[in-house]
Amino acid sequence: MDSLITAAARALAAGDVLGALKRVGLRDDAPALALRGIAMAQLGDVDRAKALLRRAARAFGPREAVARARCVVAEAEIALVSRDLGWPVKTLDAARVALETHGDHVNAAHARTLEVRRLLLIGHLDEAEQALAGFDPVPLPPALRVNHELVVAGIAMRRLQTKTARSALARARRAARDADIPALTAEVESASQVLDTPAARLMARSDQRLLLLEDVEALLASKALVVDACRHAVRETGTVVSLARRPVLFALARALGEAWPADVPRGALITRAFRARHADESHRARLRVEIGRLRWALRPLAGVSATSQGFALVPRRAREIVVLARPVEEEHASVLAFLADGESWSSSALALALAASQRTVQRALDALAAAGKVQSYGRGRARRWLTRPVPGFTTTLLLPGPLPSD
């Protein structure tokens, strides 16, 4: 590695993108192309960055397997940050194996972190935890420790383990100070704000209030019977009845939970569950059938009793029934929730993350765009959606290995 390449790598590691480009901007050899690709990614020119990294990978000789693998890792991070979740995972895994085989454990660890971050984005928490099991981040450089701890915090937040999340974020904050890269510090602070932002809305006895993530954790650990409108389930102290695939039953359960301890008239239940403006005998017959199904589904947790006017939910052990809902409920809220991270998403990536068809996601995006809630840029397969102007590239790409003096 010549002096200019070394100096450019040091500049990138310190977050000095323009300083790196001054040193390698006019060079077309493979290491310079790779460093230029990383620099362009950090400046936000993702398409140019991908092209440069692919040129660099082709320019490296057949004996330079490590350099080619590093290019693959860098391109994978660009794909992750630009929410190209369909990027070939097997290619990244092969690059990680090559790096481990040749002793480049730092970049191999970075590749593993990218794999876990992708699993986290698409909601595969068990696989993400399995990939992190037994991994020791202590030997990593500070910038990579930040990414590792952010992943740990992200999993903990989704598991509603707020103490674990706060501990991971504290470690990430210390590592970011050691790395002395402003973009990483900003990323940690942005992740920390999730713990101090309302995560849900509690509805109990006609009262409503917003809950932080740790409040939600405490509620689910309490002895209350919770009708969870965030996950479409009914739960109590470890027992969970999922109604995610039974929307009519969940609509009935939620209506009964919101009214508890009072009952809900039959006409209101028909309107709520079947969206019928005028109830007739067929609707009433269908309501009786669905109430019977709800009784059977909720039998471990609660009963559904008939009253003179309608039906009421009766808990078996819990002293209280509450409803847990999203802070703001509107149509296509799930799509907006993913776009709220400030990154630009493709419709295919959203479909993968939401486990929905791409056409369903496209219809939702079109409706949100017509309402002025989202915007897009690009055309065709390059089209991306976001809720605010295109964000900066805040993560650190690590292509060169440890420098000789490190």
Tell me about this structure.
- This protein has 406 residues and is of the alpha+beta class.
- The chain folds into three domains: 3-195, Serine Threonine Protein Phosphatase 5, Tetratricopeptide repeat (Alpha Horseshoe), CATH 1.25.40; 200-325, Winged helix-like DNA-binding domain superfamily/Winged helix DNA-binding domain (Arc Repressor Mutant, subunit A, Orthogonal Bundle), CATH 1.10.10.10; 333-386, Winged helix-like DNA-binding domain superfamily/Winged helix DNA-binding domain (Arc Repressor Mutant, subunit A, Orthogonal Bundle), CATH 1.10.10.10.
- It has 18 helices and eleven strands.
- The chain has helices at 3-13, 17-24, 30-42, 46-59, 65-81, 89-101, 105-121, 125-132, 142-158, 162-179, 182-192, 213-221, 247-259, 266-274, 281-297, 333-339, 347-354, 358-370, and strands spanning 200-204, 207-211, 225-228, 233-236, 239-242, 264-265, 302-306, 310-315, 321-325, 375-377, 384-386.
- The strands form three sheets. Strands 2-1-9-3-4-5 form a six-stranded mixed beta sheet, sandwiched between helices. Strands 6-8-7 form a three-stranded antiparallel beta sheet. Strands 10-11 form a two-stranded antiparallel ribbon.
- The radius of gyration is 25 Å and the shape is elongated.
